Amino acid sequence: MPATVTEKLESLETTDGKAITRIYFIEGTESDTEAMDALKAEAPVVYNGLVRKPCRIEPLGFDSWLGEAPYAPSGDIQQEPLEVGESSYQFETGGGTQHVTQSLQTINKYAPPGKTAPDFKGAIGVTESGVEGVDIQVKVFNWSETHCKSNSDVDDDYEAALYNLTYTVNNAPFKNFAAGEVLFLGAVGSKRGDGDWEITYRFASSPNKTGLTVGDITGIDKKGWEYMWVRYEDAEDDTAKALVKRPSAVYIEKLYDYGDFSGLEL
Description:
The protein has helices at about 30-40, 155-165; strands at about 5, 15, 20-25, 45, 50, 55-60, 65-70, 85-100, 135-150, 170, 180-190, 195-205, 210-215, 215-220, 225-235, 240-255, 260. By secondary structure, it is mainly beta. The strands form five sheets. Strands 1, 2, 3, 4, 5, 6 and 7 form a seven-stranded antiparallel β-sheet that branches. It has a four-stranded antiparallel β-sheet with strand order 8-9-12-11, sandwiched between helices. It has a two-stranded parallel sheet with strand order 10-17. It is elongated, with a radius of gyration of 23 Å.
């Protein structure tokens, strides 16, 4: 299960009205890398015109962490209030962690003199009882957009549309990304004194892949936010004279519903 991130109630800490720190609790992982990635995926890149600075995490024990996301002014961030119809844009290239059991390629294998190292067809961490695999970093493109919308545009139906589209994947091309590549992470809106709204929309993109090969299995297609896993079975390596684990089937799983992102009205 992925790590969960919850913002602490009344978490905003302000310094002289010029900087803000949002505080989060991260649970469900013992990996500091996964905890940091989960925090950065949850904390918006831009908040109330302030840009997010480097985040920090602190272990609390029992697979729990305290996370801090500080915000401060930046010369690259538009400081003047947006007018209706205007928008600002921030992005971040980074990644998340994923557990894989299969490598892209086995570069080499070694064995004692007179013996041959078994060929596991790319399986990682093979033991007598199974395939352990390894956690790796995968590339994800995160970005946020802040749009100014009139009060008449942000009604109950629109707020419900944002809610229903949160954690869905685009069912059609969206902002130069193919269908299946963009995950909508949600939106944060604030109403200004003049009645207009500033709404920040957060997205993450992971590329679709085609023609993948796992062991002797070829022609595998996987969309960006689908999950691929591999089933292994015992096989005889005649060269090494050993019983090995090799890929016997590949499964592509749908984890998120698809949504019509035209409902975001961006």
